[in-house]
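**Protein fold record**
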Amino acid sequence: MAAIEIASLSKRFGAVQAVSDLSFSVGEGRVTGFLGPNGAGKSTTLRMLLGLIHADRGTGTFDARRYEELPHPSAHVGVVLEDARFHPSRSGRNHLRVLAAAGRHPMGRVAEVLEEVGLAPAAADRRVKGYSMGMRQRLAIAAALLGDPEVLILDEPANGLDPPGIRWMRGLMRAQAERGRAVLVSSHLLSEVAQSVDDVVVIARGELRASGPLEQVLGDANATDGPVTRVRLADGDRLTSLLCEQGIVVEPDGDGVLLARGVSSDVVGAVAAEHRVPLIELGVQSRSLEDAFFDLTRDHA
């Protein structure tokens, strides 16, 4: 079931079409990466979803309800936006107490979320103006978790976090998904996203470029040229000649490896078997999320 549904969202700022007829969904129990170059429309989309910006057209809903229609919004949706702000003279603990009172959450949740995000009591009782960027990010995440929400929206959550903090963030997102929660995360750290997400949504120029399970999106990025088959063997010249005779583009990739473009591994395997060419390795050439991302957004200015 979709916990978040974006349907035909559009937004223009003067001459700039920030988001154009954008549609995608975020499932329960899934971590979904929301990716795009700077200026692609990610932040605008999130702000329209949360009712912070009025959409020109389309809807963004949580369980078929707009954010402002939710009876207890902060108990349903936890949010960390990139520009999270705090009163510098309040302690982290008091900041959360104010939010707990405003959101009608039990005060006992303050201590629980502080422990969950790894802010020790001594740090929690310090004024926020003395916090490092990483500590501020942990405090913002604690605020998002106060209501024990069913949906978690994280805009660049790794900002300011050191490597152990990024690993902790990855574990937090996976733990939330394992509890059946929906997590939508926007991030520029593509290698980290690839380790963390189940699904990917890629936009550029405010338009959807790809949406679906990570493995599917990685394959779709190569759809214009078809699949790429990786084969390793001792006699590469012979197989190259056989494949080229059938109009298949073949490229050497070093160490006895050939890349056959536009054909599946079944086709390459059948040609090799028919002509008794022994193979050491045969499979689909794997692609990185970074490769797929640049292929999908190469026209973004």
About this structure: The mean pLDDT is 91. The first helix runs from residue 42 to 49.
